[in-house]
Specification:
There is one protein chain. Helix 5 crosses helix 10 and helix 7 packs across helix 9. The chain is mainly alpha-helical and about 230 residues long. It is built from 10 helices and 2 strands, in the order H-H-H-H-H-E-H-E-H-H-H-H. Keywords: Oxidoreductase, Peroxidase.
Length: about 230
């Protein structure tokens, strides 16, 4: 998300070759596909033909993308409402196999007392990464989602949460909720199955209610609507 500047670079190259043909929405979707491949994940067939909106839908994003403090019940409800089943939701959370969580978003599991669902040895490691209950919001202090393969999209995430090493509450709930536990266990045992379900869920997510045909526009600059 910190690299949206590259969307502008891609857009400029496309406009030089094919003016007003490829939307910014397609660029973002295809960039996500390539990012997944670069992280060792599957190559996912992604449809194109999206159009760009003429207005902002920030409120819709807030409504339909769960945040880090939401429960697994909320996450399932939100994703189910856009056609992604429980198996697909479990697969999507496998994206937590890569990246990091800022201390501000996990210290409530460490202070004043350690969340009893956390592996105690892992909790001590996390305290080393996040040594105070009130981290500086401007400081870059964080813990990796997966210490073993932090930049590979694999099923280590599921192995970690089974062993009570999930960083977020929703991660740990994923491993313990009876609706999701069977899928967590199966994905922990089979990386190919995880990749298969991840591909299916990402494709569904990418096709959720796009603008097509003569709806919206194809922007010249991804930062602005056309004038």
């Amino acid at each position: 998300m910190r690299n949206f500047k590259y969307v502008s670079t891609i857009k400029a190259a496309l406009e030089a070759e094919c003016p007003l043909k490829v939307s910014c929405a397609d660029i973002v979707a295809l960039s996500a596909r390539e990012g997944i491949v670069m992280l060792g994940g599957p190559r996912i067939p992604i449809k194109t033909g999206r159009r760009d909106s003429r207005v902002s839908y920030l409120a819709e994003v807030e409504k339909f993308i769960p945040n880090h403090n939401d429960s697994i019940a909320t996450a399932l409800s939100v994703f189910n409402s856009i056609g992604i089943d429980d198996e697909g939701v479990v697969a999507l959370y496998g994206a937590h196999s890569v990246g990091r969580v800022h201390c501000a978003n996990l210290v409530h599991r460490l202070y004043p007392t350690v969340d009893p669902t956390l592996n105690p040895v892992y909790a001590e490691y996390l305290k080393g990464r996040c040594p105070t209950p009130d981290p500086d919001p401007d400081a870059v202090v964080y813990a990796r989602n997966d210490r073993e393969t932090p930049m590979i999209l694999d099923n280590n995430y599921y192995k970690n949460i089974i062993n009570h090493k999930g960083l977020l509450i929703v991660d740990q709930q994923l491993a313990s909720d009876p609706r999701t536990t069977p899928f967590v266990q199966k994905m922990a045992a089979d990386n190919s199955y995880f990749h298969e379900q991840f591909s299916r869920a990402i494709a569904l997510l990418s096709e959720n209610n796009p603008l097509t045909g003569d709806q919206g526009e194809v922007r010249k600059d991804c930062r602005y609507v056309n004038i």
